[in-house]
Amino acid sequence: MHLSNQRQTAPTKGDRFSSAGFILAAIGSAVGLGNMWKFPYITGKYGGAAFFILFIICLILIGLPVLLAELAIGRTGRGSASTSFAKAGGGRIWERFGMLQVISPFVILSFYVMITGWTLYYAFLSFSGKLFDTDDFSGKFGDFTGSYMPLVWQLVSIVLTALIVVVGVSKGIERFNKIVIPGLIILLLVLMIRALTLPGAGEGVSFFLNPDFSKLSTESALVALGHAFFSLSLGMGILITYGAYVDKKQSLGAATLAIGAGDLIYALIAGLIIFPTTFSFGIDQTQGASLVFIALPAAFSAMPFGGLFGGLFFVLLAIAALTSAVSLLEVPVAYLMDRWKWSRRTSVIVLSVICFALGVPSALSFGLAPSLGDIGGKSFFDWMDFIASNILLPLGGLLTTLFTGYFWKKAGEAAGLTSLWFRLWVFTLRYIAPVLVILVLLHTSGIIKFSGE
What is the pLDDT of residue 220? Predict the structure, then answer.
């Protein structure tokens, strides 16, 4: 492969986020599918508002300090998620450890573009009216996932993602987020108003906002921490990579608060969409993909202008998925540009092709290839999700806390913190965050269990 005529010395040379563009892009990376189908499940299971309060506490006390650390590492290193550790003073050993935060987003992207394709397909079905030509939504979803059509829409989603990333940071990623994030906010508010005006919606709101502290436990605390951690896109190299594109004048503390607030508001509005809708139509909210692609279409079919609101809902999901997919692809792209001096165009093309190929077994594991549907009790898709989300991401987050808390001598200066805030920040990263991240890792990997699990 001849790349000598297109080389670029680093992914950050001449291409930076504006202040607003950076915050929107970072919020876009956090605004994914998890708050629409995972958040209702865990909130319903662990006490409604009681869990939401616990989630907020975990986000503030642990999530934001780790988020600030990742941004500071990226801006100091001015490199990829791996090389920034070395450039910030960690040496080659930390660069090797940092590869975890390059590999994990790429693994996630391989199956994330598949689900993004599902949302695009369902948005098309909803607006065309074809989604509601039957009452058997479970059968429709099964027929779709058991065919070759998911591969077609998976290809569409990876091509859309690649077209955004290949343009660059300011003209591609920033411009995309500046267009879609305001649109996402409008869609969220429209769907929230529709959900809150449904018959019986008040019961769902009451469930969501009235805490049941009797359901809180050690397990729920770890689940809340895990969701706060992952909903902020921590441990997957995104914020280190985006931090490399941030101007030195940008306050990282203010950016951290803005990103955290955006993630929290999104989770709140998502709850005010899902819970009123599920309670209004008697839907069990403790589901995952089936809630989004089976139960909610049934609800939309029963409400006035359901095709319109169903279409808007899946457009919302598609936008949320694409903003995250763009962030996930940028991480390995930045690594190839920084470490191996590949051009952005070559990096995007090669990684997109490999990503699509790696995602094919995940798509086939839903029915077309029975051998991929049961590998040691999990499908190929489930194994990819398990390895990335439950092992690689916690390890990546642990890497950040240990490097910043124990090995990085200029962390406070890089983060722009005053003496008091610096001491609190370092104390959290040294003594609190690592212990809790290890507990999350042990819990999500199944090594430790609690009664009732």
Answer: 92
CA 331, chain centre distance (Å): 13
**Domain of 254?**
6-444
For residues 121, 126, 132, 133, the Cα torsion angle rounded to the nearest 10 degrees is -70
Residue 169: inside a domain, yes or no? yes
- Tally of domains in the chain: 1
pLDDT given at position 12: 47
Q: Is the pLDDT of residue 222 over 50?
A: yes
**Predicted local distance difference test score (pLDDT) of residue 35:** 78
- 94 alpha-carbon distance from chain centroid: 24
On whether the CB atoms of residues 246 and 17 are closer than 8 A, the answer is yes
- What is the C-alpha to C-alpha distance for residues 104 and 86, in angstroms, rounded to an integer? 19
136 lies in a domain? yes
Q: Is 321 within the bounds of a domain? A: yes
pLDDT in tens, 334-380: 999 999 999 999 999 999 999 999 999 999 999 889 899 999 999 99
Q: For 122-143, how does the pLDDT look when each residue is reduced to its tens digit (9 = 90+)?
A: 999 998 889 988 889 999 999 9
With 0-12 / 13-18 / 19 or more C-beta atoms within 10 angstroms meaning exposed / middle / buried, residue 295 is buried
pTM above 0.90, yes or no: yes
Instruction: In whole angstroms, give the CA distance from residue 304 to residue 232.
Output: 35
Euclidean distance between CA atoms 145 and 388, whole angstroms:
22
Residue 141 belongs to a domain with what CATH number? 1.20.1740.10
Residue 449 lies in a domain: no
